[in-house]
From TrEMBL:
Coiled-coil region list: none
Name assigned to this protein: Condensin complex subunit 1
Domain Condensin complex subunit 1 C-terminal: 989-1150
Entries under Pfam families matching the protein: Cnd1, Cnd1_N, PDS5
Originating species: Linderina pennispora
InterPro entries tied to this protein: ARM-like, ARM-type_fold, CND1/NCAPD3, Cnd1_C, Condensin_cplx_su1, Condensin_cplx_su1_N
Compositional bias (Acidic residues): 470-488, 1243-1253
């Protein structure tokens, strides 16, 4: 008699005895196959053949030696057992349905099958790697070693090794579904025997689910769960989840039991068990994570069942584990969606929705960033559903907008996405769902006027209080409660319509008029709420524009999505965000930002995201401006795209045009802009039949010039058009058109053309530089000169002629250019206007100043070309030198000799010749025209106060600075004058220009500035914001490119982090973020920065010091070795100071470090003698207590580190007691309280959790 329970115990204890033993290990594969085939033949005939002792013992041997059996043979054996089991189940079913039959005769047979299934399936799941090895060895023997991998024991699922394994196990549980439908009590004589049989398959189900591969197969999972649910329903079984990947599977199991097997009691018991769990330790991750996953999944599958136990589960909102709080917020979101979609919206349901919304709104202030991010995600799927929640949306939008300034990038990213979804799903569908303010205001004004006229008509004027949009949605409600009146009081901006409109009662109105009045009131509320929604979005737009410059690339891409959506809905102000997006074309393909942006609250985007920003930008612009409209014809689409491109230039700043140029160039390169659009732009540019708005023609030539950067044919295909329009009558009338036409023609300079077009362009460009009293003349003349130097074969000759022509047109005394020291005083006593017209002199100085710069560029171009030719000719010269044939010495050799005579024989000689020309010819040569203007410029700049024309003084100082870039001698002579003007000039424009000039001089003559480098940092403290901003940009360029060595001046740059102007502060942040990538530059200069900010008369206040240091220390937190060294250096500083302010600052800096390693704490301990005297200062001691709390949170999992921290805490307390002379017990009590406070401070924000649910 086979007893299943006893045999299972023996199997578990390894005491199985096989009387008719047969081994599958070590035998030939053919013998093993023959044995399985023999058993198959028997079981196919009758499933009861398993009761034969020999057959049963052979099958037990098969299970025992499963690891040595070929996988294909295992598959055949399992198939055989399932087929035999199916036969017995069928027979038992027939016996149960046939009167007079004895179904108990099948009990032992079923037990034997259960026993074998238990052994084989459990052994197979546990020994997959051994079976894989055996299969590899068998395959190797067959192939005589070829391809054999006997050592390959890589972990794999049995389902991946044995063909058809998973399908056969699923067939088994499908059979069990049929079996469990039968009255099993009639097959087994006792309940324990029946439960032993059922328990085998429940344990097997548990074992199978341990493998995540089965959990991903929904069909397999459903077959298994149906068996388990039937077991729970019929036999009061209970199944527990013990593995991380089973949490969501168990939620599906409970949901199935609840909905199909009357398992409400099971669901309630499970949920009550979940509600009773406690998660006290922040380091216990697996427990709360599994429970949270179960709650989230169950809320999605069976919100009705979850709703029954929410009164108990709600306590997890106060759990210490943020994962549980996050899961509860997620579950509440699903409950809101479930309740809002109920057909019958009772008062109870409305109250429940309101209460759950209150909870979600409270969680906006949760202290953990992952919970706040989850709230944003909940808002996303709540608002993307069919219910609009009109009374809750305004409050929800305000809260989401507030999270755009969250300190965690993850929260900001999800907040942007939530705001985008709120915009996409807005309920204001009238007027094409567009949200432009002006049409909405016009509609509201019109409706308000109609209501006023109706009220007068019935003589029923009543004062009406303007309602908050949140209070005006009663009739539009979708099943949620009204907004708290306090919210309206806190948001006075919600009064979208400030006009008083009389209420209209039904008294004195016909039914038709009453219906019309009610309809108008509904419309009035609609437009009022729509305007308030638009104003909420407009308040968010400045924040979103800032987030376009975020270091986290996912934030940037979410912000881009918002602006694309906002432009689609025509939200006022969204176009500014689209313009700002153009700057993202410069984002590098990889992200190298570290430090402040790489905090626990959200690190920088991945390289994939960084590469995606540029692609997303192009796609966004293509979608907005280049996407054809299917309802329009091809020609209409071309006109529409052309208008879109031209509109991008309207009101654009210089920076926006530069970025737009690169963007358009890229779009042309990638074939996103077709030839038909280019032809249409030319048509707009050359339109002459009627008067065209100047902005249209300007926009067309600007875009054409941008396209020409990628495709020269844009200009070369119709160069006469540009000559006729831009350099003809229209260019003379509008100098802006002339300027951009010259810029477009400059693309021809890339390859010297032999066509007559460029020469004509030079002549016309020269004409553009002729005098004209128009402020636009200066940029037009600048581009005209650039065109001359870009296209002309001898541009310096053209420039000399132009300067001479300008001199002849400037009426002046014949000795005006010949100024010496003796005449300076005489000239300075005469009004400038008596010598020359200020406008003419300004124009002249501008021309000669720009010629000076272009001459430098020309010489550098010539130098590079000579070196290139020299390098190209060198190999052929060497070949000729080694060739003995005399006839090879031909004209090529003569050409090389000529090149050597002109440029020298080495690259250094070429550089010396060009440098000599700059030093001796340009400003002091006998034939140099520029030499005439040097004394004049010096005279004007020395006597700025004598010249009352602002434009003249600005251009004179700019021209002098340009002259100084030519010659080191001239620069050295007049550098003191320039530095004096930098400090004393009244005009901020002059000071800003000089700051830029000093940067250029630093590049040209670095040795001259090296002695006066402190003057470069002086304008950082200028009273004018523009001067500070310009200086900061110049220094950023010089320092990051290694042109200026930093020698203790970074403290001055750091002070800009606290500048009142946000642009200056943002530039400073960008500078330090980039500097942090340059060989530990921030770390190396940190001591000097601290000294500059903390010591002396120029020190900043303590609050500013704290904010600056917090920003800078983020750049070294991730490097343990740097942290250790900083601890050492800061501890040593205590020995050299007795100033309490410095002690507080040093202690604060120490408290900013993370203390992730034992070495950092050890160095603090070793340095204690140096700062123990400073512990008498309460603030210093408080900072060190914060350090202890932070170190404890990091060392909680390491016994050695924990002991070290406790030792340091004890010695710190003793040192404090000695310095203040108090009882150690009192100090210990105070330290304990402060440590608890510190631990609470760092508990959520400093502990990095591994994933976001």
């Amino acid at each position: 008699m086979f007893n299943l329970h006893e045999q299972l115990i023996k199997l578990q204890e390894g005491e199985v005895e096989i009387h008719n033993d047969f081994t599958f290990e070590g035998i030939d594969a053919i013998v093993a196959k023959r044995a399985i085939n023999s058993l198959t033949d028997k079981l196919v005939v009758s499933g009861e053949a398993i009761n034969d002792d020999i057959a049963f013992d052979t099958l037990r041997a098969f299970a025992r030696d499963l690891h040595a059996v070929d996988p294909k043979l295992i598959a055949r054996g399992l198939d055989m057992l399932v087929a035999g089991f199916e036969s017995v189940v069928r027979q038992a079913s027939n016996a149960l349905s046939t009167q007079g039959s004895d179904p108990t005769q099948y009990a032992e047979t079923l037990d034997r099958y259960a026993y074998l299934f238990q052994w084989i399936i459990e052994r197979g799941e546990s020994s997959a790697s051994q079976i894989r090895t055996s299969a590899a060895q068998t395959k190797g023997r067959r192939r005589k070693g070829v391809g054999s991998v006997p050592g390959s024991t890589k972990a794999a699922s049995i389902a991946e090794i044995v063909p058809g394994w998973k399908s056969k196990v699923m067939d088994l549980y499908l059979l069990l579904q049929q079996l469990f439908q039968l009255p099993l009590g009639r097959i087994w004589n006792s309940v324990p025997e029946r439960d032993s049989f059922i328990g085998v398959f429940m344990r097997l189900g548990h074992k199978v689910l341990e493998n995540p591969a089965y959990g991903r197969d929904s069909e397999f999972q459903m077959a298994l769960f149906n068996v388990m649910c039937k077991w729970v329903q019929t036999y009061n079984g209970l199944y527990g989840a013990h593995y991380e990947h089973l949490s969501e599977s168990m939620a599906q199991l409970v949901q199935l039991a609840y909905e199909k097997y009357d398992g409400a009691q099971l669901a309630d018991e499970v949920l009550r068990d979940v509600a009773g769990k406690e998660f006290s330790s922040v380091h216990d991750k697996s427990g709360p994570k599994n429970t949270a996953r179960f709650i989230i999944k169950f809320s999605q599958l069976a919100p009705k069942a979850l709703l029954r136990q929410m009164g108990l589960l709600i306590r997890h909102l106060d759990s210490e584990a943020h994962i549980m709080r996050s899961a509860m917020v997620d579950a509440i979101g699903h409950l809101i969606m479930y309740l809002a979609t109920q057909e019958e919206q009772t008062d109870i349901i409305k109250n429940q929705v309101g209460e759950y919304f209150d909870i979600v709104e409270q969680r906006f202030q949760d202290n953990h960033y992952l919970v706040r991010a989850k709230v944003m995600q909940v808002c996303q799927f709540i608002c993307s559903g069919p219910a609009k929640f009109p009374k809750r949306r305004p409050r929800l939008i305000n809260l989401v907008v507030g999270r755009l300034e969250d300190k965690a990038s993850n929260v900001r990213k999800h907040a942007i996405r939530a705001l985008t979804i709120l915009l996409e799903s807005h309920p204001f569908a009238l007027d094409g769902a567009e949200l432009a303010s002006e049409p909405l205001e016009d509609s509201l004004e019109k409706i308000t006027g109609e209501l006023a006229r109706m009220a007068k008509g019935v003589a029923a004027e009543k004062p009406t209080v303007s309602k908050d949009p949140e209070d005006s949605d009663a009739e539009m409600a979708d099943g949620d409660e009204t907004v708290n009146e306090d919210d309206a009081a806190q948001n006075p901006g919600k009064q979208a319509d400030k006009s008083s409109v009389p209420d209209i009662s039904n008294a004195g109105l016909t039914p038709e008029m009453a219906a019309k009045a009610m309809h108008l009131q509904f419309q009035q509320r609609y437009y009022r709420d729509a305007l308030y929604f638009v104003r909420q979005l407009q308040e968010a737009i400045p924040l979103l524009v800032q987030l376009l410059g975020a270091t986290n690339k996912s934030e940037v891409m979410e912000a881009m999505d918002f602006f694309v959506t906002a432009v689609r809905f025509r939200v006022d102000g969204a176009q500014g965000g689209i313009r700002r997006m153009a700057h993202l074309i410069w984002v590098p393909s990889t992200s190298n930002s570290t430090g402040a942006s790489a905090s626990h609250a959200g690190s920088t985007g991945s390289p994939e995201e960084a590469r995606g920003v540029r692609a997303k930008l192009l796609e966004s612009y293509k979608q907005l401006y280049l996407q054809p409209n299917e309802r329009l014809s091809a020609s209409e689409n071309t006109s529409r795209i052309t208008r879109n491109l031209i509109s991008l230039t309207f009101g654009a700043t210089l920076a926006e045009l530069i970025s737009l140029e690169e963007l358009v160039r890229t779009l042309v390169d990638e074939q996103f802009i077709g030839n038909d659009v280019i032809a249409k732009l030319r048509s707009v540019y050359g339109y002459t039949r009627q008067r065209l708005p100047p902005a249209q023609r300007r926009g067309a030539i600007i875009v054409l010039g941008m396209m020409a950067q990628a495709r020269r044919s844009v200009v070369t295909d119709d160069i006469d058009l540009y000559m006729r329009i831009g350099l003809g009558r229209y260019g003379h009338e509008d100098l802006t058109i002339a300027k951009y036409t010259c810029m477009a023609l400059q693309c021809l300079g890339a390859r010297r053309s032999k066509r007559p077009g460029p020469a004509a362009a030079i002549d016309e460009a020269e004409n553009k530089a002729e005098p004209r009293r128009d402020p636009e003349w200066f940029p037009a003349a600048e581009q005209a000169l650039n065109t001359i130097y870009a296209l002309g074969e001898k541009p310096d000759a053209f420039a000399d002629l132009l300067a001479s022509s300008s001199m002849s047109q400037t009426p002046a005394d014949e000795h005006a250019m010949d100024i010496d020291d003796d005449e300076t005083e005489t000239l300075s006593q005469q009004p400038a206007s008596t010598l020359v017209d200020p406008w003419d002199l300004t124009r002249l100085l501008f021309i000669v100043g720009h010629i000076a710069i272009k001459e430098i560029v020309l010489l550098e171009t010539i130098e590079a070309e000579l070196k290139r030719r020299k390098a190209k000719a060198e190999p052929s010269r060497k070949r000729r030198a080694t060739d003995s044939r005399p006839h090879d010495d031909t004209m090529d050799g003569d050409d090389d000799d000529e090149l050597n005579q002109i440029a020298g024989s080495t690259e250094d000689e070429i550089g010396d010749i060009i440098a000599a020309i700059r030093e001796r010819e340009l400003l002091s040569g006998s034939k140099s025209l520029l030499a005439l203007f040097g004394p004049l410029l010096v005279h004007i700049c020395k006597n700025l106060g004598k010249f009352n024309d602002r434009l003249l003084t600005v251009h004179a100082t700019a021209a002098l600075a340009k002259f100084m870039c030519i010659s080191s001698g001239f620069c050295e002579e007049h550098l003191p004058l320039l530095l004096t003007l930098l400090q004393r000039a009244r005009s901020p424009v002059i000071r800003a220009n000089i700051a830029i000039a000093l940067g250029d001089i630093t590049v040209c003559f670095n040795n001259l500035i090296g002695e006066n480098v402190q003057y470069l940092y002086g304008p950082l403290h200028d009273s004018n914001t523009k001067v500070k901003k310009t200086t900061l940009m110049v220094l950023t360029h010089l320092i990051l490119n290694g042109m200026v060595k930093v020698k203790g001046q970074l403290g001055e740059m750091a002070k800009c982090l606290e500048d009142k102007d946000t642009h200056v502060a943002d530039l400073a942040k960008l500078f330090f973020a980039e500097l942090s990538t340059k060989d530990n530059a921030v770390y190396n200069n940190l001591p000097d920065i601290i000294s500059s900010l903390s010591v002396g008369a120029a020190a900043v206040n303590e609050d500013s010091f704290g904010r600056i240091m917090k920003f800078l220390f983020d750049f070294i937190k991730e490097k343990d070795r740097q942290t250790d060294n900083v601890v050492d250096k800061l501890c040593q500083r205590f020995r050299n100071t007795t100033d309490t302010r410095q002690c507080r600052d040093i202690a604060y800096c120490l408290a900013l470090l993370p203390y992730k390693s034992e070495r950092s704490v050890r160095r603090l301990l070793d340095g204690l003698p140096g700062y123990q005297e400073s512990l008498s200062e309460d603030a210093v001691y408080r900072y060190f207590n914060d350090i202890v709390a932070k170190a404890k949170s990091q060392a909680a999992q390491k016994p050695e580190a924990k002991a070290l921290v406790e030792e340091y805490e004890s010695k710190l307390r003793e040192a404090r007691a000695r310095t203040i002379g108090e009882d150690e017990e009192a100090v210990a009590s105070q330290a304990a309280e402060e440590a608890d406070t510190g631990t609470a401070q760092y508990s959520d924000d400093e502990i990095d959790e591994d994933e976001d649910l």
